[in-house]
DNA sequence: GATGAATGAGTCTTCATTCAT
DNA sequence: TATGAATGAAGACTCATTCAT
């Protein structure tokens, strides 16, 4: 996503060999994220990652032992970032559970459905079976924490008498399903049938909240 | 999955060979389906398809000009089959719309979520961007007809006063979202956290029907 | 060592794609032998092997899964050939043990010291530690049988009273040591100090037979 | 083998640094020797040499222009050391030529066969053809002086009537052949068939001395 | 001098596709 | 039609060497 550092016209000569040990991993991960998003894992070329990061191919291998490790770093960085955002929001919320749920789902849209993050999810879905460890990583840092948060909201809603003790109690992820589907749809069929995501979001919430209502 | 039909030396079996000639495309498609399901598109090898079909690699190219065309044939065959099943069921149903919806969702579970068909969907999701035409095909033969059917059921339910004129009216696919998610979960995270699919199915329906209730 | 099959001038068009499933392995092994001899294992390029065999790089991998397997095939072919030669000669020999020994040593010179076979030995010595299995193979098919043959000759000589029951009884390989050294010298220092191999051979035998004399 | 001398923060240790500066080449050579012994020339990585010497990779290139020069330095240092040892011993020896020969061969075992020095020899044999200059160096500093010494001993023995004027007169290196072979065997086939080196040494001497006997 | 980040040429290996038989 | 041997472009990874700091 970041463009290769284009030389500042104020500075005469852009050093071809820059030494940026601290910044490099993040830069590479960012470039890798972009390339993986565009081509998926299998079709992404390490060479492209390097080029996008403005470095030589070999340099990538200075920081990550192989393509898979690079991908793992991307997953780790991106998912962790997205999830921690959500956690902050949920913490210490006061108000109706319905409102909390709305915020939570909104958050998922803002950080996953409407973001390139969904493209990472696509890789996990589509090619994750090739490296179960990364799949598990994604589950542990992304899915499980997310599910746990949902769990708590449902619990809260039920104990406050707002939600019924029904299906979402056993499978809180049901609540998020339409969002996941929207993300997939967006990546897959939006050319055939685009979604008005804002209306979809409202409909999503409407259906789910009505389904949960005590 | 089928072993290559090794000709019995005692039986000249000419009818078999003739029958085979016509059956070839279907056999190849079947083998390809299995291989694509196992490895995804990119990692599937044409050689494996041939071996699985009990023929030589070159023979595959006699029927399909390239790997992509083969994949397209698989999508066409499999999706068409699955969808027509559903259509039959829905046609001329008499009973409550809730019951019709249940059957429909059940059908989706039986033909997609609990079947290898979901593995095809995985490829469309994960690698479909590499060949938009096939993605569109999948949409046209699979998704759109499915959505249309859902549409009708919702329409029916609303006009009969069973369902409210709410979110599912605008986005009928919301109804199916939990099923799609289940399919993906099954392929991706079942090792980390398995789903009791029958209970999930009931919860899915429960949530949705309550969300739809007039 | 074999030149890439140069098209017979009598035949009009040398087919670029030849089908020679039977001949290929041997051709490739021969080409590989030449290339390995010239560059050693590590510096030998599979591409060169292919070129020398008059085929494309990929074709090599049709017959041997990787470079190491190819090398193993070379070792197997070459060593087996050389050793079986020796065995034939030794079998059923009648005459003095000294004469038998001379023939044996002569054979070693003819098949190892004065041949490219010593270049294979060089690889086993110099790079064999990278693949102990092939080292062991060389030992099993080449060294051990050779040692066994020597063993028998010494045994024969001792029991016939020709040789004394001395050092060569315990270490028959002592007999061959000067030959091995000659092979190495030839490959390593002949530019600095060439050996007159025929005189060396005679001296070798002279020293050893005198050392063995009862 | 040696850990990089980590400077004690309490002691400024300037003498150590100064001493180090002069010691650097030797330290690097020592580290290089170890690494070359372990991996051979081609598979040895300059990086490993540096790490082992406790310095940075670039520093190696401050003292040696490239990997080959470094190897040459190793050869020079190690071979010179080994050979000068032998020369001292031989000089001004009084006693039988047989005894002198025994000492000489013993010396070869102690300094070559039973030492890592043989690993250097292995590289010269196995990969020396890649850099003939180093091969020649090895010959000039190691082989030739050694041969000359042998030469003198044989000469002495013959003129004193101890040895016959036979094969070892023309090819004194015949005397050492079993030792060379032992070194190679040790590096190559000891896993398959170990040698009791002390008994081998005695057998070696026995055979050779008997072969020489006037 | 010393460092170690950066470079990029060099190789093995894979596999969709072709085509002589 | 059917075969399967042959092709060769593509891509991951290594490591000697350079050079800015």
How do the strands and helices of this protein lay out in sequence?
4 copies of one chain form a homotetramer.
Chain A: H1 23-43, H2 46-53, H3 57-63, H4 67-90, H5 97-113, H6 117-127, H7 132-159, H8 167-170, H9 177-188, H10 197-212
Helix pairs in contact in A: 1-2, 1-4, 1-6, 2-3, 4-5, 4-7, 5-7, 5-9
The first copy, chain A, binds a DNA duplex (21 and 21 nucleotides) through helix 3.
Features:
homotetramer; 214 residues; Arc Repressor Mutant, subunit A; Tetracycline Repressor, domain 2; disordered N terminus; DNA-binding
Structural features, described:
By secondary structure, chain A is mainly α. Helix content of chain A is 69%, strand content 0%. The first copy, chain A, is built from ten helices and no strands. In chain A, helix 5 runs antiparallel to helix 7. The radius of gyration of chain A is 20 Å and the shape is elongated. The relative contact order of chain A is 0.10. The N terminus of chain A is likely disordered. Chains in contact: A-B, C-D. Chains A and B meet through helix 1, helix 6, helix 7, helix 8 and helix 9 of A and helix 1, helix 6, helix 7, helix 8 and helix 9 of B. The structure holds a DNA duplex (21 and 21 nucleotides).
CATH topology category name of the largest domain in chain A: Tetracycline Repressor, domain 2
The quaternary organization reads as homotetramer
Global outline of chain A: elongated
- CA-to-CA gap between the ends of chain A? 45 Å
Number of helices, counting only DSSP H or I runs of 4 residues or more of chain A: 10
Question: What is the largest interface, and how many residues per chain?
Answer: A-B, 53 and 53 residues
Number of strands of chain A: 0
Please indicate the percent range of residues of chain A in DSSP E strands (runs of 2 or more): under 5%
SSE run of chain A: HHHHHHHHHH
- Given helix and strand content, the structural type of chain A is mainly alpha
- The residue ranges of chain A in which pLDDT falls below 50 over 5 or more consecutive positions are 1-15
Instruction: Output the CATH class name of the largest domain in chain A.
Output: Mainly Alpha
Q: Characterize the main sheet of chain A.
A: none
CATH architecture of the largest domain in chain A: Orthogonal Bundle
Count of the domains of chain A = 2
């Amino acid at each position: 996503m970041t463009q290769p550092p284009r030389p500042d016209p104020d500075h005469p000569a852009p050093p071809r060999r820059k030494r940026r040990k601290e910044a490099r991993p993040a830069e590479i991960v960012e470039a890798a994220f972009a390339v993986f998003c565009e081509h998926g894992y299998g079709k992404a070329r390490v060479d492209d990652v390097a080029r996008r990061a403005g470095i030589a191919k070999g340099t990538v291998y200075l920081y990550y032992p192989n393509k898979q490790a690079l991908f793992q770093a991307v997953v780790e960085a991106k998912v962790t970032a997205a999830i921690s955002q959500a956690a902050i929001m949920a913490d210490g919320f006061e108000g109706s559970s319905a409102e909390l749920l709305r915020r939570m789902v909104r958050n998922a849209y803002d950080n996953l459905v409407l973001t390139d993050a969904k493209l990472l999810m696509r890789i996990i879905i589509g090619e994750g079976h090739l490296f179960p460890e990364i799949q598990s990583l994604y589950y542990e840092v992304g899915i499980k924490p997310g599910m746990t948060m949902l769990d708590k909201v449902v619990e809260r809603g039920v104990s406050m008498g707002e939600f019924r003790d029904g299906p979402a109690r056993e499978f809180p992820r049901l609540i998020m399903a339409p969002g996941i589907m929207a993300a997939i749809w967006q990546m897959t069929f939006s050319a055939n049938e685009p979604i008005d995501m804002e209306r979809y979001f409202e409909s999503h919430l409407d259906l789910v909240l009505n389904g949960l209502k005590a």
